[in-house]
Please model this.
Amino acid sequence: MKAVITVIGKDAVGILAKVSTECAKYNANITEVTQSVIDNIFAMIMMIDISKLNIDFAQMAEELSKKGEEEWGLKVFVMHEDIFNCMHHI
Model:
């Protein structure tokens, strides 16, 4: 099972490290990452393997979003691959 994490906000040092550290805390393995900075706006998309999570997926998603907003000043969205695939299936 996989999930997609998107992160958007003002560019700063260590964003990738912060999100990666949280993923490791929940035993989510990062399989792919793409990121870019456009006019000081940071954008990142991560694919993570969630098959060995040590926490409920919904709780992980909520905690990442909350930490992004309250501690990092970023918008962090976590979406299960099943939802993502359904949204983009014709």
Remarks:
- The chain has three helices and four strands.
- The longest helix spans residues 57-72.
